[in-house]
Each structure stands twice: as structure tokens, then as C-alpha cells.
Design a protein that fits this description.
Layout: H1 11-42, H2 48-73, H3 78-88, H4 90-108, H5 115-127, H6 130-140
Helix pairs in contact: 1-2, 1-4, 1-5, 1-6, 2-3, 2-4, 4-5
Amino acid sequence: MQTATFDWYCKYTWQRSAKNTAWCLLGCAIGDFGTILFFQLTKIPFPVLAIMILAIINGLITSIILETFILVRQGINFSKSLQTALSMSFISMISMEISMNLVDFLLTGGAILNWWIILIMLAVGFVTPWPYNYWRLKKFGISCH
């Protein structure tokens, strides 16, 4: 019996999964960068690890809110939109958040934003979940947008 091979070469799926990943990245970055920037500007003495954990949590929350909003705007009811945002892209969001904050920690010591670290964090945050999003879309026809 022959098993069908998975196709990693579909341009349409890569484009669509890139769009989905970019929306997820936008949502995650808003909460993540906003949290880090808040502590950076206010200089509130708070442990770096705690700031980064809070940034990850806030990034997940803002991503879920953005994805839910996008789905509602597409005509899906709120309950289904929220359920979709929570279930379909949560692995993607977690991997994105952890990779972005790991880059920040390794390159700056953590919880520091400047123009170059933001660019690197966004690039790594995009590339990390993109293959997973492609696979999920290609194998199951499931995407969050």
C-alpha cells in the first residue's frame, strides 16, 4: 500500500499561510511589544522574566482579540469566531511568542525594544510558526482567517 506524500511546494498555500501568519504576528506583536515598551518607558522595577511572561500572555490575548475581530468581520458569529481563534492558531501563537521573546532575551538580555531588535523579533516570530500554519492549511484545509 502506497502512502500519499505531503506537498510542501504549493505556492497558493504558502501565500495564504503567510497571510494568516502575518495577521497572527500583528496581534501578538501589539500585546507583546506594548507590554515591553510600557515597562521600558515607565522604568517600573519588575523582574525581566516576569515582564517577558506578561508580554507573552498579553501577546496571546491581543492576537486572539484581533483574530476574533477579523472572523466576526467576515460574517462569522462571535462565539464561533472566538472558538476558532482559540483552537486553530493557539500553537502558532505560542511558538511565535516564545521565539520572539527568546530572541529578545538572547540579544538584549530581555525586555528591551529598539528598532533592530523589533525587526529581528518580527522576522523570527513570522518564520517560526509559518511551516506549521502551511501544514495545517494544506493537510486539513484549516486556517484562522
